[in-house]
Amino acid sequence: MYALLKPLLFRLDPETAHRLVFGVTEGAGGLAGAAMSVVSSRPDPVLETSVAGLAVRGPLGLAAGLDKNGSLARFWPSVGFGFTELGTVTALPQPGNPKPRLFRFPAERALVNRMGFNNDGAEALGERLRAWREAGWSPGQPIGVNLGKSKLTPLDEAVDDYRKSTAWVADVADYLVINVSSPNTPGLRGLQDPEQLAGILAAVLEKGEGKPVFVKLAPDLDDEGLLAACEVARTGGAAGIIATNTTIERPGIPDVGPGGLSGRPLRGRSLEVVRLVAEEGGLPVIGVGGIESADDVEAMLAAGAEVVQLYSALIFNGPELIGKIHNELARRVRESGAATFDDWRAGLRAERP
After folding, report:
1. Is pTM, for the whole model, over 0.90?
2. First-residue to last-residue Cα distance in the chain
3. Predicted local distance difference test score (pLDDT) of residue 78
4. CATH 3.30.420.360 describes domain 2-351
């Protein structure tokens, strides 16, 4: 189905196409999920695993950035994801950066965005998820919320900004993510500094109602900076690390101005960061960056990731990709003779040079 729609969508500005797809899917309500279930399916039970105490249906989840306001939160489980991450949301509603701010590069299978955390605010997301849950919605998988700093909030007030966001969503989220690594909010990446990060982590844990808290890091940090941030996360009580966010590097990509690059060109650096953090960071790792096939997932798992996420590949391949990857992973697990996904993943790491 997506193969038929893709040429039409790619004639539109990327953000216009995004709004159109979301508007149609949201307007269709439960019919969209029912239609999706025809071409997708719940992951094979052999793929069940966990990360930081969160039981997931399969190792492939939706990364933050695609559904900032959670408008399709009820739809994503029907696509076949093992878990879903919403956001990034901020304490203050904000329009984001001036347009154009989203660019696609089909030949390179890459996106560049400088969206700037455009969202309706953490309070609105919390109210939406709360209303659905109170009406009986049960996603059957972990739903995470990614938290960023409001652009208008001064850096020296960032701790309170994250505290407010956390308070609005903690009761309806299964896990929380501290985003201090987007390149599109001025000064945000400076919050990866150990002293700054420690204060933000403490505030999110304080208001987080015991939910697991992850820290999402940038691929552009050097090894020393990555491990310093991991040490703060570990000693401060974080449940894990998400590696990585988008990069400011532009390997083979035309210049469209500032922004973060995602998709295939990010894969190599993300693997390097996952390997380093998994080996020396002392916390479970969710790997993200350039994943678009079962081979990519396997490489991330072998590098040390517990589970993985994707976003950009959905734009180029469509939602059917999720089921295809999970089905191929299930086949590999069963053909390996491993009793469980966890055993298979451990075998991959044991074979790593």
Report:
1. yes
2. 41
3. 93
4. no
Give the bridge partners for 247, in sequence order: 261
Distance CA 163, CA 157 (A): 10
Query: Using CA atoms, how far apart are residues 247 and 105, in angstroms rounded to an integer?
Result: 15
Domain ranges of the chain: 2-351
Percent of the chain with pLDDT over 90: 93
Nearest to 23 by CA among 67, 86, 79: 67
pLDDT class of 29 with cuts at 50, 70, 90: confident
248 pLDDT above the threshold of 80: yes
Among residues 182, 262, 270, 312, which one is catalytic? 182
pLDDT at position 24, please? 93
Residue whose entry in the numeric block shows the structure tokens 């850096």: 155
What are 261's strand-pairing partners?
112, 247
CA–CA separation, 28 and 34 (whole Å) = 10
pLDDT at site 36: 66
Sign of the C-alpha dihedral, residues 87, 271, 102, 150?
Answer: positive
Distances (CA, A) of 60 to 291, 301, 322: 10, 11, 7
**347: Cβ contacts below 8 Å, ≥ 6 apart:** 336, 338
pLDDT of 38 over the 60 cut: no
Distance, in Å, from the CA atom of 302 to the CA atom of 250, rounded to the nearest integer, reads 26
86, amino acid identity: L
CB 340 within 8 A of CB 346: no
Active site residue 165: no
Closest C-alpha to 137, from 172, 85, 87, 176: 172
